[in-house]
Amino acid sequence: MRVHRITVRDVKGVRESTVEFPEHGVVVVEGPNEVGKSTVLEAFDKLLDPRLKASSLSKEVKRLQPVGRDVGPYVEAEFTVGGHRVRYAKRWLRQATTTLEILTPVHEQLTGEAAHARVERLLNDSLDRTLWGALRLAQTGDGSLAPLADSAVLGAALDAAAGSDLHAEGGEQVLEMVEKEFLAYFTRTGRPTGDYRRAMTDHTEAQHGVTEAHRRLDEAGRLLERQQSAREAVEAGADVVARARTDHAAAQAAQVRAEALAEAHATARALLGQARERSRAIVKDRRHRVELAEQVDRLGEETDLTERRRAEDHTALEQLRPLLEQAEEAVAEADQALERAEDVCDLARADVDHLVQVDQAQALDRLVERVGSTVARLVAARKAVPARPVGAQEVRRVRELQHRVEVLTAQHEAASARVRVESLGGHVEMARPDAGPGATLSLEAGEISEGALTDEVVVTVPGAARVVLEPEADGRSRREELQRVGEQLATLLADAGAADPQELAATAEATAAAQGAVRDLTRDLESLLAGRPAGQLREALDGAVPAALREELDALLEQARASTRHDDDHPLPADVPTARAVAHAAGVDVQSCREARRSAVAVHRERQQGAALLRARLDRADGHLESLRRQVERATSELAEARAVMSDGALDEEQARRATLLAQAEVEEAGARRALAEADVEGVRVRLGEAARRLEEAEEAQEAATATLHALTGQVEMAQSEGRSELYDLAVVALEESERRLASLDRRARAARHLWRTLTEHRDRAHATYALPYTQALEELGRRVYGPGFGVTVDDQLVVRSRTLDGATVPFEELSGGAKEQLGILARLAVARLVDPTQGVPVVIDDALGYTDPDRLVQMGAVLGASTAGAEVQVILLTCTPDRYAAVPQAQTVRLSA
Amino acid sequence: MVVVRFLHTADWQIGMTRRFLSSEAQPRFSQSRVDVIRRLGRVAQDQACAFVVVCGDVFESNQLTPQTVRRALEALRSVPVPVYLLPGNHDPLDAMSVYTSAVFREEAPEHVHVLDGPGPHRVAPGVELVAAPWGSKHPGRDLVAEALSVVDQGPAPAGTVRVVVGHGAVDELDPDRRNPASISTGPLRAALDEGQIHYVALGDRHSRTQVGDRPGIHYSGAPEATAWREERPGDVLVVEVEPGAEVRVTPHHVGTWSFHLVQERLGSDADLDALDARLRALPDKDRAVVRLALRGELTVAQHARLEEVCARHRDTLAALDQWGRHTDLAVLDDGTDWEDLGLGGFLATAVEEIRASARPVGGAVDEDGAEAEAEAEGAGLGVGEDRPGLEEERRGEEAAREPFRPGRDDDETSARDALALLYRLTRGGVA
C-alpha cells in the first residue's frame, strides 16, 4: 500500500488539513503538539476500518467529531493498494456519505454501500493487516513489534529470502482449525479430555460391569453345580441312614435279651438279700432276749447298793445337826461382845477430838492477839518515817561537796594576791562587784580590810580615788569552779529539804531508825502467819488483823462448844494424852472381839457345808433309786412280753430254719450272676451305643446335607430371580456400545492429534527458517547505527528476544526505552525492506526517538535515509520537534500549523 | 374325520441382546420380541387355531430379569387360545428354570402350559402332544426318540392326532455328525408313515425349514429375525392335521425386523450414489440391521464421502457396521486431491509426511467388526444355531476379551484419518 494524500475536515480539533506524501522515501510530518498529526493517521485508520460505515454511530466514530460542533467528520484519502490507485472519502454522522473513485487501472466511481464493499474487498485481497498494524510505532509504544509470524506478506517475503517454500497461504488459519479439533479431545499437554475422556471412563466402567456381571453369572453356574452335588449327597446320605437304622435295630434286640438276664439276676440278688436280712433279724432277736434278762439282774443289784449308801448318809446328817446349832450361838455371842467394845472405843475417840479442838482454839486465840499487837506497832513505826526520807548515799554526797567547797575556798585564797586596804582618814568604800550588790564594805578612817584578791575589788575614796583591783586570770576560774560546786551543794540540800548538812544528817538518822523498825515488825508478822494463806499476811502488812483469822477462831470455838459432852458416869479425861491412851485401850479391845467372832463364824460355816453336802447326796440317791426302780419295771415287763410272743426254745428253732433258706438263696444268685456274665452285657451296650451314634451321625449328616440343599436351592432361586444371564448380556451390549463410541472418538482424536502434531512441527520449522533472513536484514541495519558488534536473536514467531552489543547480550524487555525504540524502528525498517514493495505498507513512526542522544539520532537518521534510498519503502515520521529528523538525508518535510 | 388346526412357532428368544445394537436400539429389539407374541396370537385367532405350540427357546436364558419374564407373560395373556411351551436348550428345565421360577409360577396365565415331562400330553380330546423337553443344556441323547419311545406302538387310535414337539438339530442338517443329541429323522419318518404320529413340530433353527421332501417335519423359524443369513425368518406356521391326509402347513409372516448384508464393489462416485440410494431404500430402517461388505478403490475424496454416507445412515438404521473380513477398500492417494486443494508451504510438507506414513493404503479393515463377525458366523447358517456349550464358551471369552486400548501412538490408521480430517477441514476452501 502506498498513501498519497490524506485530507481531514472537522475531525477532532482539526478544521481542515491535508498532508501529501511522496511515493517513497522519508516524509517528516512536522507540527506543534495538538495540531493534529496523529489525528490525520487515526482518521485514515477509521476510513479503512471495514466496520465503520458512513452510517455508523459507534463510539469510535463519535470520537472523531469535534467537541461542541454539530458537524460530520470527513476523511478523504488517495492511496494505491493491490495495483489500484483510489480516492476514497467518508463523512460520518451528518450527511453521511461514502465516495470511491478508482483512478487506475480502470476508472470506476462508486458511492454508498457499494463503495464501502468495493474498498473492503480490495483491502481484504491486498492489504496485509497484520503487517499494517505491525509497522506502526505509536506514541505510546515501547518499540516492541507485534508478532509478525502471522503476516502472509512477510512470510512470503521471508520464504523468498530463505530460498524456501514454507509459507502457506492461510496456513495459520488451517492450523488454528486443527488445533481447535485437537483441543476437543486433548488438553494442551496431550491428556484426553471432554467427551473422549468421558468415553474412556464409561468404557472402563462398562468393562467392570461386564466383569462383575460375568462373575455373578459364573457364581450362578457354580451354585447350580453345588446344588446338584448337594442333591446327590442327600440321596447317598439316605442310603447310609437306612443301613445305620438296620444295624441299630439288631443291637437293640441284643440289648433286650441282655436286659432280661440282668433282671433275673437282680431278682435273685433281691431274694438273697431278703434271706440274709431275715437270718440276721432272728440272730439279733435272740441276742436281745439274753441281754434283757441280764439287764434285769444287774439293775436289782444296783438298787440294793444305792439304798445302803443312802442310809449311811442319813445317819451322819442327824449327828451333825446339834453341832451346827452350837456354832450358831457362839457367833451370836461374839457379835454382842464386839458391839459393846466398839461403843466404848467410839466414845474415847470423840473425847480425843473434843480436847484437840479446845487446844487448837486456844492456840489460835493467842495468835490473834500477837498479830494484833504487832500490827499496831508496825503502823506506828511507819508513821515515824520522815516525810522526805534521806538515804546514806545522799548524806555522803553532801559531805563530799561540802568538803570540796572548803578545799576550793582554801586553795583560792591561798593562791590569790592579797589586798590590804586601810583607811587612813576618810571614808573608803570597798566593793566587790562580782560577789553581788551587797558585797560592799565601807572603811572609815583607818579601818583595814585585808583579804585575798579573789574577786574584782573596787576601792573608792569618795572625792579622791577609785581603785579597781582585778584578780589575776587564774583567780577568776577558781572562783567560778568554787561557785559551781557551791551551787551543786545548795541544789542537793534544797532537794532533800534540808537547810544544811547537819539537818540532812539528822533526817538520815531518823529515816534509818524508822525503816529498821518496820523491817523487824514485818519479819515478825511473816513468821506469825507462816503457813497461812498469803492474803492473810498482806492484810496484816496493810495494817489490820486478818478477818479470816478471826473467823477461823470463831469456828473453832463453836466446834469445841458443840462437842462438849455431859456424861457424869464417864468423866472427860483430863487432857489430850490421857484421852488418847483411853482410846487406844478401847481400840485393842475391839480388835480382840473381832478375832473371836471370825473364829466362831469359821466353825459355823464348816459345819453348814458338811450338812449341805450330805443333804445333796441324799437327794441324788433318792433320784437314782427312783430311776432304777422304773428301769427294772420296764425290763421285766419287756422280757415277759417277748417270752409271751415266742418262748426261748421256739426262738432257737426259727434261727436254724432261716439259716437253711439263706444257703439256698446264695446258690440261686450265683447261678444268675454267671448267666449274666456270659451274656457280655457291656459289649452289647457298647455295640448298641455305637450303632446309635452311627445312626445319629448319619441322620445329622443327612439333615445337614438337606439343609445345605435347601440353602443352595434358596440361593439358586434367588440367583434365578435376578436374571443374571440377561443382565450379563445387557452389560455386554453396553460394553460394546461404549467401545464403539470410544473407538469412534479414538479414531477422530488420534487423527486430530496426528495432524496437529505434524502441522505444528512443520509450521515451527518454517518459522525457524524464516527467522534467518529477517535476522540478517535487522542486523545489517543495526550495524550501521551501533557498529559491527551489533546482533539480535529472533524467535520462530519473529519476535526480537535480545540484543547483543559488543559481546553483551541483553533481553529485549530489559533494554532502555530509547534502545527499545531504536530497535523497534530498525525492525520495522527491516521488515519494510524485506517485503514486496507492491504488497508492503508504510512504516509510520509517531513521535519517536525522544530519548535518543544526538549522536545516535544522527546515525538513526542516516539509517532511515539509507534504508529508504533506492528501496520502494514509504516511511512517515511524525514529530513535534522540528530538528529531530534533520539528519535524514533526502527527507521531505510537511509542516502542519494550527 | 377329526381335523386339528394349530399354530407352530419356536425360538422366541425373549430377552435376547445383540451387541451390534446400540443401547437405544436394543430395547426396541427386545420389545419387538414381545410384540410379535401378540401378532401371532391374532394369527391364531384369525386362522381358528385350537392352540399354539412353541417348540423351545421361548426364553433366551433361564436367568432373565423378572421384568422381562413379566412382559412376555403379559403378552401371552393376549393370546386367545391355549399355549404350550416346550423347554429348549436355552431355557431347559434345570434347577434354575424360568418355568419353575416364582415369577412364572405366580403370573403365568391359566391358558399357558409348560410341557414339562417327556411323552404324550393330552391337551384336548383327541389331541396328544408328544413332548421332548430339555432338562439340561447337555442332555447327551436324542430326546425326541426318548419321548416317542413311551408312546404306544402302532398307529394312533382312530380320532387321535399326535404331534411330536421337539427342539434341536436334526441329524441330516447337523454338521456335527457325531452329536449324540441330534434328532434322528429316520424313526420319525417311519412313525409318520405308520400313522403313529402325524406331525413333528421342531424348534432351534431360526430359518423356516421343511425337513426332507415331504411335509411332516418342520422348523417354524424364529418369529422375529435374530441374525444375518437366517432364511425366511419372521414366520409362524399354521398346521392342519387330518389323519390319513397329508398335513397342510401354511406360513404367516409376523416379523418386523430385517437383517441385510450389503455387498458392493465401489470405484466411482456413481457407486457411492448407488450405495447411498440402496441404503436409503431400505424399509423400516429403525428395525433394519445392515452389515456392509465393501470392496474396491476410492480416492481420498471418495473415501471421505463414504464415511459421510455411512455416518448419515447410521443415524436412521437400527445398526450399520462393516463386515471386516469381507471389507477390502483401498484409498488411492496419488496427490491429485491435495493439488486440487492447493495447499502450499508447510501445509504441503506436512501433508507429504502424513501421506508417507499412511502408505501402504489398502484393506481398510474396521477392527471393531471382529466380534460382530463371530456372531454372524455362528448364527443362522442353517445348522443348529446354538450347539450346546457354545453360549457359555462365548460368555467366558467375552469376559476375558482383551479390552480396547484408546490413544495408541500414531500409525497408518491415524495417518489416514488425519489426512481425511485435513481434507474435510480444508475442503470448505481456504483463502
UniProtKB/TrEMBL annotation, chain A:
Transmembrane segments: none annotated. Residues 317-351, 611-755 form a coiled coil. It comes from the Bacteria. Residues 1-48 form the YhaN AAA domain. Signal peptide: none annotated. Keywords: Coiled coil. InterPro entries: P-loop_NTPase, YhaN_AAA. It holds the Pfam family AAA_27. Gene3D superfamilies: P-loop containing nucleotide triphosphate hydrolases (3.40.50.300). This is YhaN AAA domain-containing protein.
UniProtKB/TrEMBL annotation, chain B:
Pfam families: Metallophos. Keywords: Exonuclease, Hydrolase, Nuclease. Residues 5-179 form the Calcineurin-like phosphoesterase domain. Residues 365-376 have a biased composition (Acidic residues). Residues 361-415 are annotated as: Disordered. Residues 384-408 have a biased composition (Basic and acidic residues). CDD domains: MPP_Mre11_N. It comes from the Bacteria. Gene3D superfamilies: 3.60.21.10. InterPro entries: Calcineurin-like_PHP, DNA_Repair-Maintenance_Comp, Metallo-depent_PP-like, Mre11_N, UCP033093_metalloPase. Belongs to the SbcD family. This is Nuclease SbcCD subunit D.
